[in-house]
Amino acid sequence: MQIQIRLRIPTGQSRVEIDDDKPLGDLVRLIQEKTQLTDFTLKYGYPLKNLDIGLDSLERPVKEFSLRGETIVVAPSESPQAVAVEQAAAKPKFTPKGIEPDETSLEWPERGGYIVLRVMPDDNSCMFTAFGGAMGLENPSQVLRQQVAEYILDHPQEYNSVILGEDPVRYTTRMKQMDTWGGAIELSILSDIYSIEISSIDVKSLRVDRFGEGKENRVIILYSGIHYDRIAFCMDLSYPVEVDVTKWATDDDTTLTKALELAERLKRLHYYTDTTDFVIKCEVCHWIGQGTKEAAQHERETGHSQFGEMTIT
């Protein structure tokens, strides 16, 4: 009898079909062909358990392993993967202030992995880096800023000075500078450019703002008041971010629910800045204001975009 088995691999999901009278070794070879991996471990069930692919088991028929309707997690163990992990470990890592690394992920046994917070550098380009990384772009901040600027100038009726709060040419000139913040306008534009829904979860309110509803796929980012991070899925916390899953079908509400669960944990840990009562100082001219709206106004008036949060005691 022919059965279908779902595969969870580092780059996403796949599917194989096999006659359940065939030996397990045939299934292993199918997985090798499908994933282009030669050395891996297989896990299945809930909670996850190892599928024995030793020599003795490879001759047994597939039906003896009760795999009908199962999802098999394919965990690479070959040396290139180990090299990738080592290279990733050598890269700078960014961890939320005051938050332990093990608090930025939630185990997801049903999917055979973890939903995780990928923390972006605090360099005024976090929104572009969060989205661009989810889309697999190189140099995302530079590329996306240029694309947003061109889109605005190509749509003068939609993005005029009333919507932007200033002359479009001046707005786009600032937006192309690497230290200018991006926000809702840019997210809406990027959703159109890449034809993808961007779901932005606000940590403090747990509100989900959807840009580009009705698209086929979505990415998920997390907004913590003055900073954006990326939500991803990984099969193992030791894997490099390059093999993260960062795009999902928009009808996959389970992923969004899991991301909200992680956001709720981060809210309890106060991983957000309350923009209603925090004070900002301009690092260029030492102007002091309150909240992101005043900071944005100051940036439009002066072109200054380097701000720091001041603590009131």
Structure explained in plain terms:
- Helix 5 packs across helix 8.
- With 313 residues, this protein is of the alpha+beta class.
- Strands 6, 7, 8, 9, 10, 11 and 12 form a seven-stranded mixed sheet that branches. A five-stranded mixed sheet has the order 2-1-5-3-4, with helices on one face.
- A hairpin with a 4-residue loop joins strand 6 and strand 7.
- The protein starts with a strand and ends with a strand.
- The protein is 33% helix and 24% strand.
- This is Ubiquitin thioesterase OTU.
- Hydrolase that can remove conjugated ubiquitin from proteins and may therefore play an important regulatory role at the level of protein turnover by preventing degradation.
- Its EC number is 3.4.19.12.
- One of its GO terms (molecular function) is zinc ion binding.
